[in-house]
Structure formats: structure tokens, C-alpha cells
Design goal:
Layout (H helix, E strand, L loop, with lengths): L2 H16 L3 E7 L10 E7 L2 H17 L6 E3 L6 E5 L3 E7 H7 L1 H4 L4 E3 L35 H15 L10
Parallel strand pairs: 2-5
Antiparallel strand pairs: 1-2, 1-6, 3-4, 4-5
């Protein structure tokens, strides 16, 4: 979630606005919720040609900055175009597809941003502390320990203890 990524997201939003994309939403993804990228940019196009024009404009704008998508999907159908820039993903929907897939609801743990928020410095994560030993790359979660590997194994151990019951041998008559 570095400044360079935020600038690239801002450029993609600017490209969407230039091509009159509607209902632009920027979601800052929560890594703790299993997100695989830092940001989602969502917008709606009113027809297939506009959806493709928005996609083309984003690609052109970011290519000028030397950035190309690692993946482009759905361009020919123009129902849902996905531009994957690894650190952020742009979704360009038709109105019908946007309502059907409802990514905002699916990723409701993500923080909604406004384009102006991208110019600000990223907020520091609360409650997460990283401890790195010299020469090692181990990370430790906050004192709550919910996400740490040791906490997960402890919870798994408790689950195993409660589910493994010894069966008494059956008496034969």
C-alpha cells in the first residue's frame, strides 16, 4: 500500500472519469480478510463500447507511467472487464453485472476511499505489530494473537482434543 500504488490508482480513477464512468468506488482491501491485492477500483459503464473505452483509457494512462496490466479479462464481452495490476485491480461493469456480482457487499470489510483520499499518506495499521529478529523474517501479530500461526495451531489443537473421543470396546455376548 505504498505511495506509488496509490498514485497509479488515482490515475486509473482519473481515466475512468475522463470516459464518463459512473459510480466510481475505491476499496482499500483488508489483508486480514484474505484480500489478494491492495485496492479494488469499481465503476460502471452504460454500454459495451463505453466499457471498452474506459478500459482502453486506463491502459493508455498507466502505460504512460510504464505500468501494464498483468491480466486483462472480459474485454470482448464487455460485461465485466477486469484489469489486474497486481497491487490493485480495476473492475469495469455493465449496470446489470454490477448489481449481480455486488463486490462492495462481498468485500464489505474493505475501507471505502474517495479519490482525494489517495493523495494522503496511507494510514498506519492499528493493532498489528511486526517483530523481526536479526537475520530472520518471522512476523508476530498483535497481542490478541488471533491471526498468528501459533494461535491458529492452539485453536486447532483444542478442536482436535474435543473431537477425538476414545471408543469403548463393545462387549461380546
Amino acid at each position: 500500500m505504498n505511495l506509488e500504488t496509490r498514485q497509479q490508482v488515482a490515475r486509473s480513477v482519473q481515466a475512468i472519469e475522463e470516459k464518463k464512468g459512473e459510480d466510481v468506488v475505491i476499496l482499500e482491501m483488508d489483508r486480514n480478510a484474505g484480500a489478494f491485492t491492495d485496492y479494488f477500483v469499481l465503476c460502471t459503464g452504460t454500454n459495451p463500447r463505453q466499457i471498452q473505452a474506459i478500459s482502453d483509457e486506463i491502459e493508455k494512462e498507466l502505460a504512460q507511467a510504464g505500468v501494464r496490466p498483468s491480466s486483462l479479462e472480459g474485454y470482448n464481452q464487455a460485461e465485466w472487464v477486469l484489469l489486474d495490476y497486481v497491487d490493485f485491480v480495476v473492475h469495469i461493469f455493465s449496470e446489470r453485472a454490477r448489481k449481480f456480482y455486488d463486490l462492495e457487499r462481498l468485500w464489505k470489510s474493505a475501507r471505502r476511499l474517495k479519490p482525494a483520499d489517495l493523495a494522503k499518506k496511507p494510514a498506519a495499521k492499528k493493532g498489528v505489530r511486526r517483530v523481526v529478529a536479526v537475520g530472520a523474517t518471522k512476523k508476530r501479530a498483535s497481542s490478541a494473537g488471533r491471526g498468528s500461526p501459533s494461535a491458529r495451531s492452539k485453536r486447532a489443537g483444542k478442536a482436535r482434543k474435543t473431537t477425538t473421543k476414545k471408543k469403548r470396546p463393545r462387549k461380546r455376548s
